[in-house]
TrEMBL record:
Protein name: 3-dehydroquinate synthase
Intracellular or extracellular location(s): Cytoplasm
The reaction(s) this protein catalyses: 7-phospho-2-dehydro-3-deoxy-D-arabino-heptonate = 3-dehydroquinate + phosphate
Lineage: Bacteria, Bacillati, Bacillota, Bacilli, Bacillales
Pathway(s) it belongs to: Metabolic intermediate biosynthesis; chorismate biosynthesis; chorismate from D-erythrose 4-phosphate and phosphoenolpyruvate: step 2/7
Domain 3-dehydroquinate synthase C-terminal: 185-329
Gene for this chain: aroB
Natural source organism: Brevibacillus fulvus
Amino acid sequence: MSIQTLQVELAERSYPIYIGEGLLQQVAVLFRERGVSERNSLLIITDQHVAPLYLDGLRDRLAQAGYQVKSAVVAAGEQAKSFSVYEQLMTEAISAGLDRKSVILALGGGVIGDLAGFVAATYMRGIPFVQIPTTLLAHDSSVGGKVAINHSLGKNLIGAFHQPLMVIYDTAALHTLPEREKAAGFAEIIKHGLIADEAFVNWLEQNVDPLWTLQAGYIDKAIRQGCAIKANIVSADETEQGQRALLNLGHTFGHAFEALSRYAQLNHGEAIAIGMTLAAKLAERLGLAEAGIAVRTKKLLASYRLPTEWPTGFAPEQVLAAMKRDKKVVQGQLNLVLPRAIGQVEVVKAVDEQSVLQLMRDVQG
Ligand code: NAD
Ligand code: MG
């Protein structure tokens, strides 16, 4: 089996990401290699979609290897990142007798990573956790150490920075993903290429078929490179002082679409796909990027079945107003991440609002 590995460099909080087809069979081996022994009791946290697919297999293999394993299953979807589910998981952790040496396993997508990671960050002031991502989008949440739950007044407002002990990414588990979730994951992979790596973008353009069908030797490399690009940015800026803002390409537009549709019509990946297309068009109009970059961006996203056209039912004025409510807005100024070229972006401060509005009116048609 070929395994891609990547070390996320964060001084004493550095950790490896293992990526490969069938890695769920190797969890106990990887645990031993990293010093997680039978003396460490384990709690697997997963959701109702993932549990019937992968929980029993993982639990049984770990039990066979001699580990004490408990599991907790929460409802699937964003609503699980709530105070009530968090409290319920804390109750399960206490009842299961977890101590400071216990390890929490987050088996699922970004929701489970964020939720189980926040449980791990706060249980007894912090215990180790391992991410076992089962969505493509979770390549993004597996790097950076941000863990959180939501408040009714906003997403991810209650959280911490808590780095995992390791990330074990079994690409075989991605085959059961619904198509829209798969496309959403590619949106963030493409974003990482557009931010920092033109050669990677070329490769994503040339290998749509093997990537879309999740072929081993392709999808593992794409995940690795997506994680590597994010890891480079995060290592330079662990607590989000500067560079990390570059990761928001397409996100100020995207968050506005998500918020206005109350997170129903478009998922995150779809919203940022439209956002990245708009950012590229805006960069051309402002003379920041050469003509052609917007067409190329749009074509790439569309080849991974992502939407790039203005979504129906949104008024440009409303979108602009929502963009200005984004938490990244500083002192009323609209700061946007815009491309300079494929593989190169920058934060543009105080972008002219009229240009943004005009662009949105034009593409709305
Ligand atoms: P998710 O965890 O809700 O997964 C999407 C859907 O797919 C869910 O219904 C889930 O049950 C299902 N699913 C997961 N794996 C599956 C599989 N292998 N087969 C079939 N179904 C499967 O969402 P997501 O898109 O993975 O992540 C989104 C979340 O990640 C958001 O809450 C976002 O805030 C968070 N996030 C965090 C970071 C970070 O840095 N911490 C970065 C990006 C996103
Ligand atoms: Mg994102």
